[in-house]
Specification:
The chain has eleven helices and eight strands. The protein is of the alpha/beta class. It has two domains: 5-25 and 113-252, HAD superfamily/HAD-like (Rossmann fold); 28-106, no CATH class. A six-stranded parallel sheet has the order 5-4-1-6-7-8, with helices on both faces. Strand 4 (130-135), helix 7 and strand 5 form a beta-alpha-beta unit. Helix 3 crosses helix 5. 35% of the residues are buried.
Length: 255
């Protein structure tokens, strides 16, 4: 799908989703083992049964459905004391809620940047675009840890997470939080994600100029079928953005 120059001429900022867009998580035994050990140490549990982990996973799934239906992100303390471990004294959980959330994320493995991500981000920044992150995340630590590990902290002007603003995509408020911090009108921003139902619907509700999806070549993912809202473009690699977003001065010279 081709994006017209008219849709780009007033663009100042490009904001990104993280999970599945700028990074991926892959199994990694040392990371996973350390995460499980950290959780057990905090919870003062030894040799938990498989049923214990299955119960936690079921409660997280229930919370995730509720949060997405209501487009609300509870604090980590509320998630752990009200949804995940309601039978544990809150005072044992609350001081460690952020560490527990990070460990729960890392139980699935380590995060790695998507191919071409860093080169693409650096080039977009060189071309004059302001960059930011808007992402759903239960954890306040998970994505910041990835940004630091990747050496990306200086690339992004803002990093807005649902865990910090208490709204989940596709609620427009999480997008407006980012544009407000950048002192930009949403109409001067583009958003790149990997899910139509959250990323494209959300940025459209917020009034962004453009919304694009990165995805595999071929059929859309099963949960993205029959969407009434469509992206302005579908790319298959982050480096494809460089053929869309030219140096900003080029557009300025045409005005």
């Amino acid at each position: 799908m081709v994006v017209s120059v008219d849709g780009l001429s007033n663009l100042e900022a490009i904001l990104f989703d993280m999970n599945g867009t700028l990074r991926v998580r892959e199994p990694h035994a040392p990371t996973q083992q350390a995460a499980f050990e950290r959780m057990l140490d905090i919870l003062k549990i030894s040799n938990p049964s498989d049923a214990f982990w299955e119960t936690l996973a079921g409660r997280f799934k229930a919370y995730g459905h509720w949060a997405q239906e209501n487009l609300v992100q509870l604090s980590e303390e509320e998630i752990w004391t009200r949804w995940i471990l309601p039978d544990v004294p809150p005072q044992q959980i609350e001081p460690f809620a952020a560490e527990l959330s990070l460990a729960w994320s890392e139980r699935k493995g380590r995060t790695l940047p998507k191919p071409d991500a860093e080169e693409t981000l650096l080039e977009l920044k060189r071309r004059g675009y302001r960059l930011g992150v808007i992402s759903n995340s239960m954890s306040t630590l998970d994505i910041p840890h990835s940004l630091a590990a990747f050496g990306w902290n200086d690339l992004f002007e803002v990093v807005v997470l649902s865990s910090g603003v208490k709204y989940r995509k596709p609620a427009p408020e999480i997008f407006w939080e980012a544009t407000s911090k950048m002192n930009l009108a949403p109409a001067h921003c583009a958003y790149i994600g990997n899910r139509i139902s959250r990323d494209i619907v959300g940025c459209r509700r917020a009034g962004f100029a453009l919304g694009m999806i990165i995805g595999p070549v071929g059929k859309p993912r099963p949960d993205e079928k029959d969407q009434s809202v469509q992206p302005d473009a579908v790319i298959h690699a982050l480096s494809d953005l460089l053929s869309i977003f030219q140096t900003r001065e080029l557009f300025g010279s045409r005005v």
